[in-house]
Specification:
CATH topology: TIM Barrel
Number of strands: 11
Radius of gyration: 17 Å
Number of domains: 1
Helix content: 25-40%
CATH superfamily: Glycoside hydrolase/deacetylase
Structural class: alpha/beta
CATH architecture: Alpha-Beta Barrel
Strand content: 15-25%
Order of helices and strands: EHEEEHEHEHEEEHEHEH
CATH class: Alpha Beta
Distance between the termini: 19 Å
Largest sheet: 6 strands, parallel
C-alpha cells in the first residue's frame, strides 16, 4: 500500500512537522502560496486562541528540504471569483516562483478553500499541473476519476483515520490524508500525529511516496 500526505499553507508549525516526518522517514507534499511569504515570519490569521504565522521567505528552502512542493496559488484567494487574467496570474506565476525558489518541478496544485469550477480546472491544467487536490473525503482515492479533482481518504484528525487506513491496506491501494500544521494546537494532538506517522512507518505493508509520483507513474 502506498501512503501519501499533504499539508497546506507554509505555516511556522511546519518546522516542527518536517522534523517529525524526517525522524520517521515519512514523505509529504507541502502546498505553498509564494506571494504570502515575506522576508521574515509574518502574522497570517487567528485560529481560535492561536495566532498563525507564515514562514519567512529565507527559511523555506531549509524547512522543506527533501519534500515535494506543490502550488497552492499565489495569495490563497477564492479562485472561482477571479477574472480569467487574475486566475492565470494566481495559478501560473505562483508555479513559476516555486520552481525558481526550490529548483524542482512543481506538478501538483491544491485548491485554496477546496474551491474550483471548470474555469479554475482549465487554468490549472493549462499551466502545467498534472493533479489538483480537493478537500473531498473519499473511500477510494486512486486512480481518481479526474486527476484535477483528487480527493483524500480523510483529514489527519478524522476519528476514523485508522479504520480508513486499514481499509486501504486491505485492498492494497493508496491511503491519503491531509491537514494544516496550525491545527496542532496542543501536545496531545502532536502526540497523536506522531503515533500515526510512527505507526505507518513501522508497517511493512506501507510505503511512503510523494503524491506526484502516483501520477508520473500513471503517465
Amino acid at each position: 500500500m502506498k501512503v501519501v500526505q499533504s499539508w497546506d499553507d507554509g505555516i511556522v508549525d511546519d518546522v516542527r512537522l518536517t522534523e517529525l516526518l524526517r525522524r520517521f522517514g515519512a514523505k509529504a507534499t507541502f502546498n505553498l502560496n509564494p506571494g504570502l511569504h515575506q522576508n521574515q515570519r509574518s502574522f497570517s490569521f487567528q485560529y481560535g486562541d492561536k495566532g498563525v504565522w507564515r514562514l519567512g521567505r529565507a527559511e523555506l528552502i531549509d524547512v522543506y528540504a527533501g519534500f515535494e512542493i506543490a502550488n497552492h496559488s499565489l495569495t490563497h484567494p477564492h479562485l472561482p471569483d477571479l477574472s480569467p487574467a487574475d486566475l492565470t496570474h494566481e495559478v501560473q506565476d505562483s508555479r513559476h516562483l516555486l520552481q525558481d525558489w526550490f529548483q524542482q518541478p512543481v506538478r501538483g496544485f491544491c485548491y485554496p478553500f477546496g474551491a474550483f469550477n471548470p474555469a479554475v480546472k482549465d487554468a490549472v491544467r493549462a499551466t502545467g499541473h498534472i493533479y489538483a487536490r480537493t478537500v473531498a473525503a473519499l473511500e477510494s482515492v486512486f486512480p481518481p476519476v479526474d486527476p484535477l479533482e483528487f480527493g483524500a481518504n480523510c483529514h489527519f484528525t478524522d476519528p476514523a483515520f485508522w479504520t480508513r487506513y486499514e481499509r486501504a491496506k486491505a485492498s492494497n491501494s493508496v491511503f491519503f490524508f491531509w491537514g494544516h500544521s496550525y491545527e496542532l494546537v496542543n501536545e496531545t494532538l502532536w502526540a497523536d500525529l506522531e503515533n500515526k506517522i510512527a505507526g505507518i512507518s513501522a508497517d511493512s505493508a506501507a510505503e511512503w511516496v510523494n503524491l506526484e509520483t502516483l501520477f508520473v507513474q500513471e503517465g
